[in-house]
Design brief:
- By secondary structure, the protein is an alpha+beta fold.
- It has a seven-stranded antiparallel β-sheet, with helices on one face.
- The chain is flat and about 90 Å long.
Protein backbone atom coordinates (compact mmCIF):
# COMPACT_ATOMS: atom_id res chain seq x y z
CA UNK A 1 0.00 0.00 0.00
CA UNK A 2 1.50 3.33 -1.08
CA UNK A 3 0.82 6.51 0.85
CA UNK A 4 0.56 8.51 -2.40
CA UNK A 5 -2.51 6.42 -3.27
CA UNK A 6 -4.28 7.13 0.01
CA UNK A 7 -4.71 10.88 0.20
CA UNK A 8 -4.54 14.08 -1.80
CA UNK A 9 -1.51 16.28 -1.24
CA UNK A 10 -2.03 20.04 -1.57
CA UNK A 11 0.20 21.65 -4.19
CA UNK A 12 3.38 23.27 -2.82
CA UNK A 13 3.76 27.01 -2.65
CA UNK A 14 0.35 27.76 -1.13
CA UNK A 15 0.03 29.56 2.24
CA UNK A 16 -0.12 27.14 5.14
CA UNK A 17 -3.76 27.91 5.90
CA UNK A 18 -4.73 26.86 2.39
CA UNK A 19 -2.81 23.59 2.81
CA UNK A 20 -4.67 22.51 5.93
CA UNK A 21 -6.24 19.07 5.59
CA UNK A 22 -9.34 17.73 7.32
CA UNK A 23 -8.34 15.52 10.22
CA UNK A 24 -9.57 11.97 9.75
CA UNK A 25 -8.96 8.35 10.64
CA UNK A 26 -10.14 5.67 8.22
CA UNK A 27 -12.24 8.26 6.45
CA UNK A 28 -14.09 9.39 9.62
CA UNK A 29 -13.60 13.15 9.99
CA UNK A 30 -13.21 15.13 13.20
CA UNK A 31 -12.05 18.56 14.37
CA UNK A 32 -8.72 18.85 16.18
CA UNK A 33 -7.53 20.96 19.10
CA UNK A 34 -4.04 19.55 19.54
CA UNK A 35 -1.90 16.92 17.89
CA UNK A 36 1.54 15.69 18.87
CA UNK A 37 3.96 13.34 17.17
CA UNK A 38 6.56 11.52 19.25
CA UNK A 39 9.51 9.85 17.57
CA UNK A 40 13.29 9.58 17.88
CA UNK A 41 15.92 6.86 18.08
CA UNK A 42 16.03 3.81 20.35
CA UNK A 43 19.18 4.54 22.33
CA UNK A 44 20.65 2.18 24.90
CA UNK A 45 23.27 3.84 27.12
CA UNK A 46 25.95 1.54 28.50
CA UNK A 47 27.84 2.64 31.62
CA UNK A 48 30.99 0.75 32.54
CA UNK A 49 32.64 0.44 35.95
CA UNK A 50 35.89 2.33 36.42
CA UNK A 51 35.28 4.36 33.26
CA UNK A 52 34.42 8.03 32.96
CA UNK A 53 32.61 7.89 29.63
CA UNK A 54 29.46 5.92 28.73
CA UNK A 55 28.59 4.47 25.33
CA UNK A 56 25.19 5.16 23.77
CA UNK A 57 24.23 2.49 21.25
CA UNK A 58 21.74 3.28 18.48
CA UNK A 59 19.24 0.42 18.16
CA UNK A 60 17.23 1.88 15.29
CA UNK A 61 14.32 4.25 14.83
CA UNK A 62 11.61 4.36 17.45
CA UNK A 63 8.01 3.71 16.36
CA UNK A 64 6.08 6.91 15.69
CA UNK A 65 3.35 7.69 18.20
CA UNK A 66 0.62 10.30 17.84
CA UNK A 67 -1.46 11.86 20.61
CA UNK A 68 -4.48 13.66 19.16
CA UNK A 69 -7.25 15.58 20.87
CA UNK A 70 -10.21 15.78 18.53
CA UNK A 71 -13.77 16.90 18.99
CA UNK A 72 -17.19 16.74 17.38
CA UNK A 73 -19.55 19.69 17.63
CA UNK A 74 -23.01 20.60 16.45
CA UNK A 75 -23.09 22.78 13.35
CA UNK A 76 -25.80 25.28 12.41
CA UNK A 77 -26.92 23.11 9.51
CA UNK A 78 -25.97 19.81 7.90
CA UNK A 79 -23.37 19.92 5.13
CA UNK A 80 -21.66 16.55 5.51
CA UNK A 81 -20.64 14.09 8.20
CA UNK A 82 -18.24 16.60 9.81
CA UNK A 83 -20.42 19.72 9.71
CA UNK A 84 -23.66 18.20 10.93
CA UNK A 85 -26.63 19.49 12.86
CA UNK A 86 -26.42 16.38 15.09
CA UNK A 87 -22.90 15.94 16.48
CA UNK A 88 -23.72 12.33 17.40
CA UNK A 89 -23.54 11.33 13.73
CA UNK A 90 -19.89 12.40 13.56
CA UNK A 91 -19.20 10.92 16.99
CA UNK A 92 -20.64 7.50 16.18
CA UNK A 93 -18.76 7.25 12.87
CA UNK A 94 -15.47 7.99 14.65
CA UNK A 95 -16.26 5.51 17.43
CA UNK A 96 -16.90 2.79 14.86
CA UNK A 97 -13.56 3.16 13.07
CA UNK A 98 -11.58 3.52 16.32
CA UNK A 99 -12.87 0.15 17.53
CA UNK A 100 -12.44 -1.60 14.19
CA UNK A 101 -9.75 -4.26 13.91
CA UNK A 102 -6.62 -3.63 11.85
CA UNK A 103 -4.75 -0.56 10.67
CA UNK A 104 -5.96 2.60 9.01
CA UNK A 105 -4.83 5.91 7.56
CA UNK A 106 -4.46 8.85 9.92
CA UNK A 107 -4.59 12.30 8.35
CA UNK A 108 -3.75 15.32 10.49
CA UNK A 109 -4.19 18.91 9.27
CA UNK A 110 -0.51 19.80 8.81
CA UNK A 111 1.16 16.39 8.41
CA UNK A 112 1.26 13.80 5.65
CA UNK A 113 -0.92 10.68 6.08
CA UNK A 114 0.40 7.78 8.15
CA UNK A 115 -0.64 4.13 8.39
CA UNK A 116 -1.33 3.54 12.08
CA UNK A 117 -3.26 1.51 14.64
CA UNK A 118 -5.22 2.88 17.58
CA UNK A 119 -4.37 1.11 20.86
CA UNK A 120 -6.60 3.34 23.00
CA UNK A 121 -8.86 6.37 23.05
CA UNK A 122 -10.98 8.26 25.58
CA UNK A 123 -14.35 9.85 24.83
CA UNK A 124 -15.48 12.73 27.08
CA UNK A 125 -18.91 14.34 27.14
CA UNK A 126 -20.05 17.01 29.63
CA UNK A 127 -23.62 17.95 30.40
CA UNK A 128 -22.76 21.66 30.58
CA UNK A 129 -21.37 21.47 27.03
CA UNK A 130 -24.30 20.13 25.07
CA UNK A 131 -23.76 19.14 21.47
CA UNK A 132 -20.03 18.69 22.00
CA UNK A 133 -17.67 15.81 22.81
CA UNK A 134 -13.91 15.31 22.83
CA UNK A 135 -11.73 12.36 21.84
CA UNK A 136 -8.25 11.81 23.29
CA UNK A 137 -6.72 9.30 20.87
CA UNK A 138 -3.37 7.54 20.72
CA UNK A 139 -2.07 6.16 17.44
CA UNK A 140 1.03 4.07 16.84
CA UNK A 141 2.83 3.44 13.57
CA UNK A 142 1.75 0.14 12.00
CA UNK A 143 5.07 -0.57 10.24
CA UNK A 144 5.83 -3.94 8.63
CA UNK A 145 5.24 -7.52 9.78
CA UNK A 146 8.44 -9.39 10.79
CA UNK A 147 8.14 -11.60 7.70
CA UNK A 148 8.16 -8.59 5.36
CA UNK A 149 11.56 -7.12 6.09
CA UNK A 150 12.85 -4.43 3.71
CA UNK A 151 15.27 -5.75 1.10
CA UNK A 152 18.86 -4.69 1.76
CA UNK A 153 21.16 -3.32 -0.94
CA UNK A 154 23.16 -6.57 -0.98
CA UNK A 155 20.06 -8.74 -1.41
CA UNK A 156 18.79 -6.46 -4.15
CA UNK A 157 22.12 -6.81 -6.01
CA UNK A 158 22.05 -10.60 -5.71
CA UNK A 159 18.49 -10.71 -6.99
CA UNK A 160 19.43 -8.52 -9.95
CA UNK A 161 22.38 -10.78 -10.79
CA UNK A 162 20.23 -13.90 -10.61
CA UNK A 163 17.60 -12.30 -12.82
CA UNK A 164 20.24 -11.29 -15.40
CA UNK A 165 21.69 -14.82 -15.41
CA UNK A 166 18.26 -16.36 -15.91
CA UNK A 167 17.45 -14.01 -18.79
CA UNK A 168 20.80 -14.81 -20.46
CA UNK A 169 20.12 -18.54 -20.22
CA UNK A 170 16.66 -18.12 -21.74
CA UNK A 171 18.01 -16.02 -24.61
CA UNK A 172 20.76 -18.55 -25.30
CA UNK A 173 18.24 -21.39 -25.33
CA UNK A 174 15.97 -19.54 -27.73
CA UNK A 175 18.90 -18.79 -30.03
CA UNK A 176 19.94 -22.46 -30.09
CA UNK A 177 16.41 -23.60 -30.90
CA UNK A 178 16.12 -21.04 -33.68
CA UNK A 179 19.47 -22.09 -35.15
CA UNK A 180 18.51 -25.77 -35.06
CA UNK A 181 15.24 -25.07 -36.81
CA UNK A 182 17.10 -23.27 -39.63
CA UNK A 183 19.40 -26.21 -40.38
CA UNK A 184 22.52 -24.63 -38.89
CA UNK A 185 24.93 -27.07 -37.24
CA UNK A 186 27.51 -26.21 -34.63
CA UNK A 187 31.04 -27.70 -34.38
CA UNK A 188 30.94 -31.11 -32.77
CA UNK A 189 32.78 -31.68 -29.56
CA UNK A 190 35.92 -33.77 -30.07
CA UNK A 191 35.17 -36.22 -27.27
CA UNK A 192 31.67 -36.91 -28.58
CA UNK A 193 33.08 -37.44 -32.10
CA UNK A 194 35.58 -40.04 -30.81
CA UNK A 195 32.82 -41.88 -28.99
CA UNK A 196 30.78 -41.94 -32.20
CA UNK A 197 33.73 -43.38 -34.18
CA UNK A 198 34.32 -46.15 -31.63
CA UNK A 199 30.68 -47.18 -31.87
CA UNK A 200 30.90 -47.84 -35.66
CA UNK A 201 31.49 -51.44 -36.93
CA UNK A 202 35.01 -52.39 -38.14
CA UNK A 203 33.92 -52.91 -41.77
CA UNK A 204 32.08 -49.55 -41.93
CA UNK A 205 33.31 -47.74 -45.12
CA UNK A 206 35.29 -44.65 -44.20
CA UNK A 207 34.08 -42.84 -47.29
CA UNK A 208 30.58 -42.88 -45.84
CA UNK A 209 31.77 -40.49 -43.17
CA UNK A 210 33.09 -37.96 -45.73
CA UNK A 211 30.71 -35.11 -46.59
CA UNK A 212 29.03 -35.34 -50.03
CA UNK A 213 30.83 -32.24 -51.28
CA UNK A 214 34.25 -33.88 -50.67
CA UNK A 215 33.28 -37.30 -52.10
CA UNK A 216 33.30 -35.75 -55.55
CA UNK A 217 37.03 -35.09 -55.22
CA UNK A 218 37.97 -38.69 -54.42
CA UNK A 219 39.60 -40.75 -57.28
CA UNK A 220 37.36 -43.38 -58.78
CA UNK A 221 38.44 -47.00 -58.81
Amino acid sequence: MHISELAWFPPPGLPWRQQLMRASFRGAYFHTETGTKENARRIVTHEFPKKEFPYSEDMGRRAMEFSVRGYCITYVHTEDTLFNLDYRVTRDLLLEVLEKEGYGVLQLPTLPPYIVVCPRYRLTEEMKLGGYCTFDMTFVEFGLPPTDQPVSARDALLQAQEEARRQAEEESKKASEAAGAGGITFPEDKSSKNRRLRSLPRNYPKTAMIPQSKKLLLPHG
